[in-house]
Design brief:
The protein is mostly helical. Helices cover 46% and strands 4% of the residues. It starts with 6 loop residues before the first helix and ends with a helix.
Length: 142
């Protein structure tokens, strides 16, 4: 099994791709802040719960002795299937105020969203690198 096939790594990759796409949409909002009639856009949020449910049970307890509870001795775990992200569609999401020209972009709100997206991306990349570091340690390569 390749490292990229692990469900948690795949979910982190999907999250980073979503954050990259969101940053592009927010940049378009900022670029069109003075365009008459422009409506602010955002991406539909990823549904992490759905991704986990669709990935199926990753590990299942297997009894190795007859005294174990909860599963038969001959049971086996399920194979790993990576879930699919839901979300990522561009939606029109006007901010709470609209200018007289019909533009609904509020630069302060957009900058807050950009900063939050950047922090989320840094968090996920940190988790990704830490996960790869743990796998290297487990393999005996430091």
């Amino acid at each position: 099994m390749a490292i990229g096939d692990l469900p948690i790594v795949e979910m982190m990759k999907q999250r980073m791709q979503w954050l990259t796409a969101r940053q592009q949409v927010l940049a378009q909002n900022v670029a069109n802040a003075d365009t008459p009639g422009y409506t602010a856009r955002d991406l539909k949020a990823l549904d992490f719960g759905t991704m986990v449910e669709r990935s199926g049970p990753v590990l299942r307890a297997v009894a190795t002795q007859a005294g174990h509870l909860g599963s038969p001795v001959t049971g086996s775990g399920h194979s790993i299937r990576t879930g699919q992200a839901t979300g990522g569609e561009i939606i029109k999401k006007p901010d709470f105020e609209t200018s007289p020209t019909g533009n609904s972009v509020v630069l302060e709100d957009q900058m807050i969203k950009v900063a939050q997206t950047q922090m989320d991306y840094q968090t996920v990349t940190g988790l990704y690198s830490k996960s790869l570091g743990l796998i290297r340690i487990a393999l005996g390569r430091s």
